[in-house]
């Protein structure tokens, strides 16, 4: 019964993984800023269609000041700076190497979470992050100055996306696709405007169409499919499948762009797969308390935290509305999600 959710998660990963070799191909005709803008405007287009079909509204409910600040930080770091650093790195290195470097987003998210966002990581998680980081050093080793420049740009990109992940995880009141729509429109318009002011526009209408479709599929539809899969599989299993995206990008770089895959790429891929397995193995359990709170976010009623009652709704079905949590104290294995940002 869960097979179609696994398929959706894999399609989501494949769409995102394809964005790196396609980005390398499109950089022939666009500057990094122009292409980043077109990708994110395409992402806004990609998520607007399922939002319109769901009748949940395009932009979500009115947010308070804290959530507006979180969304603004998400747009700045994840929508403007992150893709610029990625595409600048892609100009200097092969698509295959950049695809594998994208796993540094997990390391960046872990690092920032531990030191700044009350996110705890255990022994297995730190070993996994170390393996992924070491594999990224392998990829930079043989590339000379350009390799180290590209590697540092990808580190900056993944740190930006790590910040984006944490700020997005703290936003309540709007759906993930609605925050993606805001990000796509605001960041896409900003980067495209910067690119048009400072760089000659050489892209043909066909290339513009390819860039917009790539953004709609790789950033827009991919997010919509991932959210759907996560609703059926849970966050951990769906994220494990989505973690195959960089390896899909590696294969497409070889088959679509004809790039040479070296022994270093193979060793880095093996190290990163082991690192990912260790990170996903890591979680912790302890007695913790939840204070009383009222907020709006996507949730189901089979997670032990949402105890309000809907007589006509399947407890496993995800839905979004304003709801109240009474104070609760319990113990269970958990990740640092919206309800688990407590101190340790």
Helix content: 55-70%
Shape: globular
Task: Give the strand order, joined by hyphens, for the main sheet.
Answer: 1-4
DSSP helix count?
12
Q: Low-confidence parts lasting 5 or more residues at pLDDT below 50?
A: none
The major sheet is characterized as: 2 strands, antiparallel
Strand fraction:
5-15%
Whole-Å distance between the termini?
A: 38 Å
Label the structural class. Answer: mainly alpha
Number of strands: 4
List the helices and strands in order.
HHHHHHHHHHHHEEEE
Mean pLDDT: 81
- CA-atom Rg in angstroms: 20 Å
Short description:
It contains twelve helices and four strands, in the order ααααααααααααββββ.
How is this structure best described in words?
The protein has 344 residues and is mainly alpha-helical. Helices cover 67% and strands 8% of the residues. It has a two-stranded antiparallel sheet. The longest helix is centred in the middle third of the chain and has 29 residues. The radius of gyration is 20 Å and the shape is globular.
């Amino acid at each position: 019964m869960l097979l179609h959710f696994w398929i959706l998660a894999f399609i989501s990963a494949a769409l995102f993984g394809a964005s790196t070799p396609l980005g390398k191909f499109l950089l022939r005709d666009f500057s990094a800023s122009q292409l980043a803008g077109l990708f994110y405007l395409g992402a806004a287009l990609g998520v607007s269609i399922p939002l319109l079909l769901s009748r949940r509204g395009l932009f979500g409910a009115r947010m308070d000041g804290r959530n507006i600040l979180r969304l603004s930080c998400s747009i700045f770091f994840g929508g403007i700076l992150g893709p610029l650093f990625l595409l600048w790195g892609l100009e200097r290195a092969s698509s295959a190497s950049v695809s594998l470097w994208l796993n540094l987003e997990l390391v960046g998210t872990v690092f920032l979470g531990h030191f700044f966002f009350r996110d705890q990581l255990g022994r297995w998680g730190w070993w996994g992050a170390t393996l992924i980081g070491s594999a990224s050093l392998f990829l930079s080793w043989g590339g000379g100055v350009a390799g180290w420049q590209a590697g540092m740009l990808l580190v900056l990109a993944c740190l930006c996306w790590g910040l984006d992940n944490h700020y997005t995880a703290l936003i309540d009141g709007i759906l993930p696709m609605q925050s993606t729509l805001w990000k796509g429109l605001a960041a896409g318009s900003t980067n495209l405007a910067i690119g048009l002011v400072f760089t000659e526009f050489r892209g043909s209408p066909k290339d513009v169409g390819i860039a917009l479709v790539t953004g709609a599929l790789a950033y827009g539809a991919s997010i919509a499919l991932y959210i759907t899969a996560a609703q059926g599989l849970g966050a951990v299993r769906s994220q494990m499948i989505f973690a195959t995206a960089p390896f899909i990008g590696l294969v497409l770089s070889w088959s679509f762009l004809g790039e040479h895959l070296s022994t270093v790429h193979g060793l880095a891929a093996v190290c990163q797969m082991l690192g990912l397995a260790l990170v996903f193995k890591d979680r912790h359990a302890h007695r913790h308390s939840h204070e009383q709170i009222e907020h709006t976010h996507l949730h189901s009623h089979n997670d032990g935290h949402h105890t309000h009652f809907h007589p006509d709704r399947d407890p496993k079905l995800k839905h979004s509305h304003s709801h109240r949590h009474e104070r609760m104290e319990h113990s269970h294995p958990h990740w640092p999600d919206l309800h688990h940002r407590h101190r340790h």
